[in-house]
Amino acid sequence: MAIRKLLLLLKPIDPYPFLRSEGVSLIKNPQVLKYLESRCEVHRNAINFCQEILSKKPVEWKPISRNDVSNPIRDVDMVITVGGDGTLLHASHFLDDSVPVLGVNSDPTQAHEVEELSDQFDASRSTGHLCAATVENFEQVLDDILYGRVVPSKVSRISVKLNSEPLLSHALNDILIAHPCPAAVSRFSFKIKNKDGGDTRPKTVNCRSSGLRVCTAAGSTAAMLSAGGFVMPMLSRDLQFMVREPISPGSTVTQMHSSFKPDHSMDVNWYSDHGTIYMDGCQVRYNVELGDTIEISSDAPVLNVFLSQGFSQIRSRY
Predict the structure, then answer these.
(1) What is the rounded average pLDDT of the residues 8-34?
(2) pTM of the complete model
(3) How far is C-alpha 289 from the chain's CA centre?
(4) For the chain, which terminal residue's Cβ has fewer other Cβ atoms within 10 angstroms, N or C?
């Protein structure tokens, strides 16, 4: 398909409005202030650069702040996000499998900066795990896409049904089901079942814990990995799950962390008075109550993402 109409979806140009309050900085550490101001400038420059490149190409495009997106994105051939993984994740909740997305990491982490400032604060910038481009290679990446030298990868997402009703949003990274108060215990049970009904009596696992996290392959390098999970191949359709901080799991301890195949799903019964389903961090959330049932699977439409590995492959041919 020819790509002629693009949407440029932007992280807000001033993502740190708290830097100034009535002309006075709220940040007292001059190094931190300099770092945050630098991040704003680098991001602003990246936006300007991408717009200049797009203006030279045979495409129609328009910019929009991610905060101004409230309806499904349609009637475009591709979305380009400029920001980091959070901006691409935000965009994903407005995209089905018909519109591909390219992520541009506008402010990559600088290793020397992190090292120099490590004794003062964490100077990490944007990881950009899902972003195939930076300002350094944006034009080349864009040309590869426009001239059909690379195709997007089909990245799995999570489908969730609440009381048998499908939720409108699909998680690209992960979902967390937990009590809205982080200090409260989450009570629930779960079982992994075969979708075709082949398992006559799937085993139920009862849990008291800090909640349940389920991730895709794309999300396996994020919170799941930090919690002790394992990295999955990016194009895997398996889902990985982990019960967070289980209380006295006993003989079920080995069932607190595992994965399940696309032909299986996870059924969760919620036994706390309140709960929340968090999708992709705090991008989207849904409330759950005592007695609610939640079905989790990889049945969601895939997201077509241009990944860096696709461009590495075509580079090796030339």
Answers:
(1) 73
(2) 0.91
(3) 25
(4) C
Residue 141, amino acid: V
Q: Which two tokens stand for residue 77?
A: 């051939």
* Edge-to-edge order in the sheet of strand 293-297: 165-166, 159-162, 293-297, 264-270, 186-194, 205-209
Helix (H, G, I), strand (E, B) or coil at 278: strand
CA pair distance 218, 231, nearest whole angstrom? 9
> Where does residue 115 rank: exposed (0-12), middle (13-18), buried (19+ CB within 10 A)?
exposed
**In contact, 147 and 318? CB cutoff 8 Å:** no
Cα separations (Å) of 100 from 61, 152, 216?
A: 15, 7, 18
| Structure-token pair, residue 65 | 């702040």
In DSSP terms, 5 is beta-bridged to 60
Average pLDDT for the chain: 92
Measured in residues, the chain has a length of: 318
User: What are 256's two structure tokens?
Assistant: 């607190």
